[in-house]
Write a structure and sequence with these properties.
Chain lengths: 538, 272, 319
């Protein structure tokens, strides 16, 4: 069989700091009919750039420098704009990460769907509309006859993403480029989109490039996988072989991300330090966003608060910190009832409860040095200045595994994402807290960096018996780090308990759906799951 | 700092040159000017000569002398007004952003009303009631202009305020002033500095316009807007005297705008 | 659709409240005079009797809130009182001048709006090219120039050197339309330069913003022709910001005429206002200030309403 797509020795350059610098280096790949090739890597690996280059497209400030891109025998590198236009959309189509941004808000979905086939002269408007409805049905969109006549903002995130997958199919292209199509979605919604992808690649036998940072996701859909790092190929192989026997250390690291940590001793002997009782909260004064919240955190333990977007888990963090005062219930911290409002809390209350955030970029003042960031809580809570403070800052830096001399005088803007998150941890530790609330602390980081942060947090807990309330949507993280799991849905806690108990059946119905939606490394996982759910699927 | 200057584009350097030149002239006016500010030394609208570098004005004063003193009066007044306007505006803007709640609501609604009133008309009405004197002028314009500064500094502070590092400070128990001084202000400086340039231009043009209308700086004090007005009649005789002060106003504002443009470019982080 | 109507009604309500507050500010402003209007106008040499008589005439002996209500009621009915300077009814003074001001503003808008939008769109499409840079530098200069500088340059060029157009834009009610246009060409051109510069820069920014969106990239990747992308994808979404830019600048224009009217001795409301301020003819100042404000607020209201109507998300809400 001949190659549909053949990329040879491709170099792509980006313009930065007044020179053209290569961001994709010497990449070659081939794609046969009906084949799905997964491109995987962390941010900066160049995977999206390669995906777009397969269509002869580069973003502003980038250019195809050298090599060859043969699409169905036609050379795209150096082709005229008109030649490229004819190919795009008709022979090769693209599914972007954010459907909400990629649909034009001014037009109905179906109008955007039929645009490509009509403009490429493949079908008439009415034919294209009929085809659109057919493909909506195939991709399990609700009410396929009518859904296309809605405007983009009237659909949910998962529906919109499937509508975009459908739109990519509008000209029956031979190849589809999926660029992180599920990254912005919740796990349960992710399954719907993955099912749509499967439908296209397996049942309709289309070739695809599947770009993602998540090895478990790509394992479900791809026949072959290319691991990329910093614009270069790390290794390439058949999916099953690569997962079973990775040749490169980097691939092994990526694979190990989701491995479980050892269970700690599950005794309940430790003291309870935080008790939340019957708490309710509201933003508007009308509808409660949180209701009947009851939970406890023990000393030296990690409680994971799990839920999808909109479940109220971050709101709960705001209630505990007093930023959003609860309207009902009580919060008992270290044996005394905390005032519900932030401004009524004592300095000691505040000191003992610290917080770490999702985005280390915005959690550090860009105009401050590391010394200032960590020094301020020392000064504020302990009145520690000068030499004494300096010594303590160095001690803290060592405890977060950053070399004090190198880092103490750096501006926060001169740090990498992982380093920033470590500084945030050090800032929290500087207050000598009893409890740290970690709000999605790893979800903005690349997997290996996130792994390092989780290890560090675990280490610190082992040494100091600090407690964590770990807010996350990522169940893999939960499995790895928690002692106790609390699952939230629509502002309520629907299940909680020791990790083992929650993770083993019988589950609450939603817990079951949530747990079964976490992709596993096993390439058959999605197929099995879809078979299982077939009856109940929309 | 020097290296940034060395990399600056030509337009920014020209702008800097213009502003520097104007400032020097303004500061050293008495030493530069050949005559007294209000002395009548020649005939009406004499043409350019070795005695009068730029000719004379409508009552025979040396135009060059008037220009030099005009620079001093106009620039000093505009600078002082802009400074005051920033003092009010950014202070209230920051407080509104950090405090939020009813303080923010009240201030913002009040400012909305003032802003829905055209500035020039507002200034004219106030001046018609209070009469035109330099303190009135400064306070009126500073007050009106501070509404724009308020809007911007509130917006900028809001953008910073939602960042977690401010929340961290709040959760630590820091007070309002500490948060404004240490977390907000350092981050608000770049946009506010650029805005200072823009507001200065606006205030400068505004004062010049009022003076041109005869409602700003009152004669015999020299100022550029007023000089255009006084000499306006000359143009119909083909004498271009009014174009000189008018051109000087344009020259300085273009210069400031060039610097602001470059500054915005730098602080937006887009070097290319 | 319901949603939009609700939004618009809210916006109109807010504007009405604003007008009331402004009328109050204007009224109180005059109240704050040290002494009162009578003292100010008549000066120190006036006898107590004349001042008293004058007070009666202006109804200054009544309490302020009653005078405010009366003043507002009269204003709504088109009775703005009498001018202090020449005793003629203010309404009579104002109406012809206001129509002149609107005429000048409208003529300017007719030239400036299409020009600015065209230049703005071109600058957005050819951004970072020589054309864009030249346009940007030129407009930046025009923004920096005081209006009277532009005005005198145009006078020096077209009226003194070439003797093409009059340097004084005196019009009277008996002039024909063509003659009127010819007379006000220089002031209109001056205003055009200033307004176009602002409008063009904002249009450019608005369009560049739309062109940077993901759906434009998506359309390109779908292999849609450039022209169609512009017309079909960029245009509908640029409409709302561009309409807003235009209306806001028109509001600016109505007020910006003041200086140009003075330069060209054009018999408009702006010139009347400036004269009256100098003479402290307060009834005229109050009335023309309020009319300017209402026009300004009205145009800003129009800007918001139009941009709400052309905002796809608001327009399409069917719920």
């Amino acid at each position: 069989m001949t190659n549909l797509l053949e990329i040879k020795n491709l170099y792509i350059e980006a313009y930065s700091e007044e020179v053209w610098q290569p961001i994709v280096k010497d990449i070659s790949l081939t794609l046969k009919k009906g084949e799905v090739l997964g491109l995987i890597g962390e941010s900066g690996a160049g995977k999206s750039t390669i995906g777009l280059a397969a269509m002869g497209y580069t973003r502003q400030g980038c250019r195809l420098a050298s090599g060859s891109i043969l699409l169905d025998g036609v050379e795209l590198l150096g082709a005229s704009d008109e030649d490229l236009r004819v190919v795009r959309g008709s022979k090769i189509a693209y599914v972007a990460q954010s459907a909400a941004a990629s649909f034009n808000p001014s037009h109905r979905i179906i109008r955007q769907h039929v645009e490509a086939p009509v403009q490429h002269g493949i079908m008439s408007y009415s034919e294209a509309q009929k085809e659109a409805i057919k493909i909506y049905r195939r991709l399990f969109l609700p009410d396929p006859e009518k859904i296309g006549f809605r405007y983009p903002h009237e659909l949910s995130g998962g529906q919109l993403q499937r509508a975009m997958v459908a739109m990519a199919m509008s000209c029956e292209p031979q190849i589809i480029v999926f660029d992180e199509p599920t990254t912005a979605l919740d796990v349960t919604t992710q399954i719907e989109v993955l099912a749509a992808v499967k439908e296209i690649t397996e049942k309709m036998n289309k070739a695809a490039l599947y770009i993602t940072h998540d090895l478990a996701v790509v394992a479900q859909v791809a026949h072959r996988i290319m691991v990329l790092r910093n614009g270069r190929l790390v290794e390439e192989g058949e999916t099953r072989a690569l997962i079973r026997k990775p040749r490169q250390a980097y691939t092994r690291e990526l694979l190990n991300v989701r491995s479980l940590r050892e269970d700690k001793n599950q005794s309940d002997k430790m003291d309870v330090i935080l008790t939340i009782k019957d708490v309710a909260a509201t933003y508007t004064g009308e509808e409660n966003v949180l209701e009947d919240i009851n939970l406890t955190v023990r000393k030296g333990r990690t409680v994971a608060l799990v839920g999808e977007s909109g479940s109220g888990k971050s709101t709960l963090a705001r209630v505990i910190t007093g930023l959003l005062p609860a309207i009902e219930g009580s919060i008992n911290f270290l044996g005394e009832d905390l005032p519900l409002e932030l401004k009524h809390r004592t300095k000691d209350n505040l000191r003992r409860l610290q917080m770490i955030y999702q985005m280390p970029d915005t959690a550090l003042n860009p105009k401050q040095t590391v010394r200032r960031v960590i020094g301020r809580p020392l000064e504020f809570y302990f009145n520690m200045r000068g030499k004494k403070a300096d010594a303590r800052i160095r001690e803290l830096l060592s405890s977060i595994e950053l070399e004090p001399d190198t880092y103490i005088n750096r501006m926060t803007t001169e740090l990498s994402g992982g380093e920033k998150q470590r500084i945030c941890i050090a800032r929290a530790l500087a207050a000598r807290p009893d409890l740290i609330i970690c709000d999605e602390v790893t979800s903005a980081l690349d997997q290996l960096v996130a792994e390092g942060i989780l290890d560090l947090l675990q280490d610190l807990q082992n040494k100091t018996d600090i407690s964590y309330l770990f807010i996350t949507h990522d169940l893999a993280t939960v499995k790895a780090i928690s002692d106790k799991i609390v699952i939230m849905l629509e502002g309520k806690i629907i299940e909680q308990g020791e990790k083992k108990k929650v993770l083993s059946p019988p589950h609450h119905e939603y817990t079951d759906k949530l747990l079964s939606s976490i992709p596993e490394m096993d390439p058959d996982w999605l197929d099995n799951l879809l078979d299982e759910r077939l009856d109940s699927f929309i | 700092m020097l290296s940034v200057l060395r990399q600056s584009p030509l337009s920014a350097r020209i702008g800097l040159g213009i502003v520097l030149l104007n400032c020097l002239v303004a500061i050293f006016a008495p030493w530069i000017a050949p005559y007294e500010e209000t002395a009548v030394v020649g005939d009406v609208w004499e043409s350019v000569s070795a005695q009068f570098f730029l000719g004379t004005d409508h009552i025979g004063r040396d135009l060059f002398t008037r220009m030099v003193y005009g620079a001093r009066n106009t620039i000093a007044l505009a600078f002082l007004t802009t400074f005051l306007s920033f003092l009010f505006g950014s202070f209230l803007g920051f407080v509104a952003a950090v405090k939020g709640g009813w303080i923010d609501q009240m201030l913002s609604r009040f400012i909305d009303v003032i802003m829905s009133f055209p500035t020039l008309i507002f200034a004219l009405m106030i001046l018609s009631v209070l009469g035109s004197s330099i303190p009135t002028l400064i306070f009126t314009i500073a007050l009106l202009d501070s509404t724009r500064v308020y809007r911007l500094s509130r917006a900028v502070a809001m953008d910073i305020e939602v960042m977690e590092f401010v929340e961290v400070a709040r959760l630590r128990g820091e007070g309002l002033w500490w948060i404004i001084r240490h977390e907000i202000l350092p981050n608000a400086m770049p946009p506010l500095t650029a805005e200072f340039g823009l507001r200065f231009c606006f205030v400068f043009l505004f004062i010049a316009s009022l003076s041109f209308l005869g409602l700003g700086i009152q004669p015999p004090l020299a100022d550029w807007g007023g000089m255009v007005r006084e000499n306006a009649g000359a143009i119909t005789f083909g004498i271009f005297t009014p174009l000189i002060p008018a051109g000087a106003i344009a020259f300085l504002t273009v210069g400031v705008n060039m610097i602001v443009d470059w500054f915005l470019h730098l602080s937006s982080g887009l070097h290319e | 659709m319901k949603n939009v109507i609700l939004h618009i009604l809210k916006r109109i309500g807010a504007s009405v409240v604003t007008v009331f507050v402004i009328s109050l500010i204007i009224f109180i402003g005059v109240e704050l005079l040290p002494g009162d209007v009578a003292d100010t106008v008549l000066g120190q040499s006036a006898t107590p009797e004349t001042v008293e008589a004058f007070r009666k005439e202006l109804k200054l002996d009544l309490p302020p809130h009653i005078r405010y209500v009366a003043w507002l009621k009269n204003f709504v009915q088109g009775d703005f009182g009498n001018s202090l300077a020449n005793k003629r009814p203010v309404a009579e003074l104002i109406s012809w001048r206001f129509s002149n001001t609107l005429f000048l503003a409208a003529t300017t808008a007719l030239i400036a709006v299409p020009l600015a939008i065209l230049l703005g769109i071109l600058a957005a499409f050819y951004r970072n090219t020589l054309y864009d840079k030249v346009i940007s530098t030129t407009t930046l200069s025009f923004i920096s120039f005081p209006e009277f500088f532009v005005a005198y340059i145009l006078i020096a060029l077209f009226s003194v050197k070439m003797e093409l157009f009059p340097s004084i834009a005196m019009i009277d009610p008996h002039m024909g339309l063509g003659r009127k246009f010819y007379t006000i060409l220089l002031p209109a051109l001056t205003l055009t330069c200033v307004v176009t510069a602002h409008m063009m820069r904002q249009t450019r920014a608005a369009i560049i913003n739309v062109l940077a969106s993901a759906y434009i990239e998506m359309a390109e990747i779908k292999g849609i022709r450039r022209l169609r992308i512009i017309i079909h994808h960029a245009f509908p979404n640029s409409l709302s910001p561009v309409i807003n830019v235009v209306a806001v600048n028109l509001a600016y224009l109505v007020v910006g005429v003041v200086i140009v009217e003075v330069v060209f001795v054009y018999p408009g409301l702006g010139q009347l206002l400036v004269d009256s301020v100098a003479k402290r003819d307060l009834p005229v100042v109050q009335a023309s200030g309020l009319i300017f404000s209402i026009t300004y607020i009205g145009l800003n209201l129009l800007a918001d309403v139009l941009s709400m109507l052309s905002n796809p998300k608001l327009r399409q809400s069917q719920f």
